[in-house]
TrEMBL record:
Name of the protein this chain belongs to: RING-type E3 ubiquitin transferase
E.C. code: 2.3.2.27
Record's function text: Functions as an E3 ubiquitin ligase.
Domain Protein kinase as annotated: residue spans: 342-581
Native source organism of the sequence: Thlaspi arvense (Field penny-cress)
Lineage top rank: taxon: Eukaryota
One annotated GO molecular function: ubiquitin protein ligase activity
GO biological process terms, semicolon-separated: protein ubiquitination
Pathway(s) annotated for this protein in UniProt: Protein modification; protein ubiquitination
Catalytic activity: S-ubiquitinyl-[E2 ubiquitin-conjugating enzyme]-L-cysteine + [acceptor protein]-L-lysine = [E2 ubiquitin-conjugating enzyme]-L-cysteine + N(6)-ubiquitinyl-[acceptor protein]-L-lysine
Keywords: Coiled coil, Transferase, Ubl conjugation pathway
Length: 686
């Protein structure tokens, strides 16, 4: 170890305390370390000893090309390189001394050459020999140590001096506070990163939209460019025609000159020509008058033609208005659809035959209901008109009618049968029956109440069903309930009294809870509402007891509307309570993991059966280009556009006013219809 001291600021026998500062080759880091030491002991007189560690190795030498083995260069070149390295270090140390001089601080230099010993041993040796009490060094100074090689290490200064335990504890507490602050910063940065990722995803979506718009704009631009090119060709053709016209004009000018010369030679016949001209002028005036008369006659005929066209168009519109909501079929169509009213296609309800047949007409599966012949023609027409005007997602929609004998009405076909056959145990052996889970039953109750409430809200007088039973509620493929049998007018009851429907709905709720058609059920529930918990239908799965209690209480409340005197309970209030119960049921299914609905005897349906969702409510045909209207229903584009063009501002399904007339393509439904067509074609070919 070699020591070199700078005696420029040294005063022997000085009483100032010495502070040893370890500096390295990083000049800025060394300046920061010196500045830190001066600020640390700014209240006591000190002198500085700059400690620099030189790594001298006999096996390697530092060159402009990096670290090379000493054996790779000549001895003379080796001496030159080491001398150059020493000069560079001396120049560096002189900058440190100059910096201390600017700060008016005494500075000495101590250069230590490190060969094979570790830096820890050298520092301990220096502390022991020189009796160092204060030693300051930056983290990056320790790069000679195998454990501190990173130049990106946290910058800081350390000094070796005896301190009290309180100081150390204070530093530890400060470090803990700093760690907590860093943790908070990391958490904030993580939240910012999450928000940034969310913003990036939004930007990506926006970019995709812009790219689609750019692509569409490019295609439009290409079309416009094609149009522009064709227009340019037309302009070129017009220019050619103009050039040809100019050539003809020049030739005509020559002819005119020839004629002028001939006119000069024919002056003797001028008088005869003038007389002839007067005669022609008179003839021209007569011709002009005749043309004006013909023009007037033409205008009159055109106005008559336009009037006839408008009248014919109005006649077509009036016919379409009659046929838009439903279609009229002849008796032959109905016989073909039902195979001449075959018993094979006759539908049962609760094991009993009905007057309803399953049929296919215009590639659509429908339910054909034969009407009693005792109903007059006016009554039949009124019934058809009423069924067409009353449309709701939870009411069975009319598909057409036949006024010839036997009179019949065509309804949309409900593939899952009626609620009675699906609910009561004795009828569950049907191939179309399904097990209704508890959440399906709550949903069905809510949707049935929605349809019933719509009937009760009809103006000017509400429509009372009067015979609401499980057999009057039909289910489609997705177990969506639809009420049938409404619109039957009775003369012995108050047509505006909705209490019978409310009572019947209460009984229906009890049927959904218990799955039983027990006459004494309502009486037992009225006496003890908790008894419903013992009679819950176990095939519906594990009922949430609180929801079952609420549903049972609502059923008793509905069934008791006629017993409380002035007690009023509308379907609107029932809808609100059922809506709350349904929301709770949905939450329980998500949070509590309640089971999904399963079918007992489900088997693959007939591919020829057309799902009702594929049918246009107006045309009653499979849609090719479905569009969603403001009422939320999908229609064939041409049908709904024709409906709106005729001045209708209400929904064809609900008769409610449409908020807007913008139509949105239903790409999802169109894809499903195309898949259905493909599967149907494959089934037919097989």
């Amino acid at each position: 170890m070699e020591e070199i001291r700078n005696h420029e600021f040294e005063e022997e026998g000085s009483t100032m305390e010495k502070v040893y500062i370890a500096v390295g080759n990083d000049l800025q880091e060394g300046f920061k370390t010196i500045d830190w030491a001066l600020k640390k002991w700014n209240n006591i007189p000190i002198s500085i000893v700059l400690l620099h560690l030189c790594n001298i190795s006999q096996d390697f030498v530092y060159t402009p090309f990096g670290k090379l083995p000493a054996s790779s260069v000549s001895e003379e070149k080796l001496q030159v390189l080491r001398k150059y390295e020493e000069q560079k270090i001396n120049k560096l140390l002189s900058k440190y001394v100059t910096f201390c001089g600017k700060l008016q601080v005494k500075a000495e230099l101590l250069k230590v050459e490190k060969q094979d010993d570790s830096i820890q041993v050298l520092i301990l040796d220096l502390i022991s020999k020189l009796r160092i009490t204060k030693l300051v060094m930056g983290i990056t100074f320790m790069r000679f140590s195998s454990s501190w090689k990173s130049k990106s290490a946290i910058s800081g200064s350390f000094y070796n001096v005896a301190e009290k335990v309180e100081y150390v504890r204070r530093k530890v507490n400060e470090a803990k506070l700093m760690i907590e602050e860093k943790k908070r910063e990391v958490k904030v940065n993580a939240e910012r990163s999450h928000k940034a990722e969310w913003a990036i995803s939004l930007c990506n979506c926006r970019i995709e939209e812009l790219e689609a718009g750019i692509k569409e704009e490019s295609e439009r631009r290409e079309k416009l460019q094609g149009t522009l090119d064709s227009d340019k060709e037309c302009i070129e053709e017009a220019k050619n025609d103009v050039e040809k016209g100019k050539a003809k004009l020049i030739s005509l000018e020559g002819i005119r000159e020839e004629l002028s010369s001939k006119v000069k030679t024919t002056m003797e016949v001028k008088s005869q020509a003038e007389a002839e001209l007067e005669r022609v002028v008179l003839k021209k005036g007569e011709t002009i008058n005749e043309i004006e008369k013909l023009r007037n006659q033409r205008d009159v005929f055109n106005r008559r033609i336009e009037f006839c066209k408008e009248k014919e168009a109005m006649g077509l519109v009036s016919k379409e208005e009659v046929k838009c909501g439903y279609r009229e079929y002849v008796a032959e169509d109905i016989r073909l659809a039902t195979e001449n009213y075959s018993d094979r296609l006759r539908l049962r309800s609760g094991g009993n035959w009905t007057n309803v047949y399953r049929g296919r007409i215009k590639h659509t599966t429908v339910a054909v209901k034969v009407i009693n012949n005792r109903l007059s023609d006016d009554g039949f027409a009124a019934k058809v008109k009423l069924l067409n005007e009353i449309r709701h997602p939870n009411l069975v929609a009319i598909a057409g009618f036949c006024s010839e004998k036997p009179k019949c009405i065509l309804f949309e076909y409900m593939h899952s049968g009626n609620l009675r056959d699906n609910l009561f145990t004795s009828q569950r052996k049907s191939r179309r029956s399904k097990i209704l889970k508890w959440h399906d039953r709550i949903r069905i109750a809510h949707q049935v109440c929605s349809g019933l409430g719509f009937l009760h809200s009809v103006k000017p007088k509400p429509i009372v069903h009067g015979r609401l039973t499980p057999s009057k509620i039909l289910l489609d493929r997705n177990l969506v309930p639809k009420i049938t049998g409404f619109g039957v007018i009775t003369t012995h009851s108050d047509q505006s009294d909705t209490k019978p429907d409310v009572m019947a709905f209460g009984v229906l709720l009890l049927h959904l809870l218990t799955g039983r058609n027990w006459p004494g059920l309502l009486k037992a529930m009225s006496m003890n509402q908790t008894s419903i918990l013992r009679d819950l239908d176990q095939t519906a799965g594990k009922w949430p007891l609180e929801l079952a209690k609420e549903l049972g209480a609502l059923a008793v409340k509905c069934s008791s509307v006629n017993r409380g005197g002035n007690m009023e309970f509308s379907t609107k209030e029932i809808m609100e309570e059922l809506g709350n119960i349904r929301e709770k049921a949905d939450e329980l299914r998500i949070i509590g993991g309640y089971e999904e609905a399963t079918d007992s005897n489900m088997e693959e349906g007939d591919p020829n059966d057309i799902p009702s969702v594929f049918m246009c409510p107006i045309l009653q045909e499979v849609m090719k280009n479905p569009h969603v209207a403001a009422d939320g229903f999908s229609y064939e584009l041409e049908a709904i556009e024709e409906w709106l063009s005729m001045g209708h501002d209400t929904s064809p399904m609900t008769n409610l006013r449409l908020d807007y007339q913008i139509l949105t393509p239903n790409h999802t439904l169109r894809s499903l219809i195309q898949d259905w067509h493909s599967k149907r074609a494959a089934h037919v070919s097989s």
